[in-house]
Write a structure and sequence with these properties.
Layout lengths: L2 H19 L2 E4 L9 E3 L1 H4 L1 H14 L13 E4 L8 E2 L8 H6 L2 E2 L2 E8 L7 H21 L3 E5 L4 E12 L11 E8 L13 H6 L16 H6 L6
Antiparallel strand pairs: 1-2, 1-7, 3-6, 4-5, 6-9, 7-8, 8-9
Length: 232
């Protein structure tokens, strides 16, 4: 096999694993006692793996799992926000004041989990997995846990799960086979202990402290702050 073929296979595997098999990482919350970060595949694949081991033991052989046979696959839904600002409709003194008066809105993102039944005991595996997943997600929220969501276009950090809904297009043919996970990112995070105002807003407010800067959740933001790119 040529080097280009090997690199191509590695790239495809990385893409499938990172973006389609386990693009969600639970941080804090239930993950706190497991190193602080746990990929969602630990919870979505656990019951299916156990079921496969039992079935393999009964038949006298244990079959390994490939990425195409995982219990569920993920994909980002259209409409995710990278920048979302609001501005008042009343007139401003000038363009600079208007630019500094914008309000940053929370970023939102929806992921789609597709889990069609497949293989022996598929419906029992589905029911057990969804039941356990609901318990884990609720407990994670109660403990203040957050999520890292990885998409081909952006890595979202500090996301909170606000809703999980059944969006199966044809429930008669394949019930409970597609779910929508809605995430939002609040305007604060642990690394944003010191809030800053722009130079202009400091002058306008007489130097009073305010919320002139909030983080976007982009991992590169701290790097840019470190080199002074955002300093006013």
């Amino acid at each position: 096999m040529s080097l280009s073929s090997i690199l191509d296979n590695v790239g495809r595997t990385t893409f499938k694993l990172g973006y389609q098999i386990s693009p969600l990482i639970l941080t804090g919350g239930v993950a706190e006692k497991m190193g602080g970060a746990v990929p969602i595949i630990v919870y979505t694949q656990a019951v299916a793996l156990l079921n496969g081991l039992v079935a393999g033991g009964i038949s006298g052989k244990l079959e390994g799992y490939d990425l195409d046979s995982m219990w569920c696959h993920w994909s980002p839904m259209s409409g995710a926000t990278l920048v979302d600002n609001s501005i008042a409709e009343y007139p401003y003194a000038n363009q600079s004041v208007a630019a500094n008066a914008m309000v940053v809105n929370p970023l939102t993102l929806s992921m789609q989990m597709i889990c069609p039944p497949s293989g022996a005991g598929a419906m029992a595996t589905k029911l057990a997995t969804l039941q356990s997943l609901q318990v884990i997600l609720n407990k994670h929220a109660q403990l203040g846990g957050a999520y890292i969501v990885i998409t081909p276009g952006q890595v979202y950090t500090g996301m909170l799960l606000t809703r999980v809904s059944d969006t199966t297009p044809n429930p008669t043919a394949a019930a409970a086979s597609q779910f929508q996970f809605d995430f939002t990112r609040p305007l604060t995070q642990k690394s944003e202990n010191v809030q800053k105002q722009s130079t202009l807003m400091k002058k306008l407010s007489g130097g009073m402290p305010g919320l002139g800067f909030v983080g976007s959740g982009n991992p590169l933001e701290s790097v840019f702050n470190g080199i002074g790119l955002f300093n006013g």
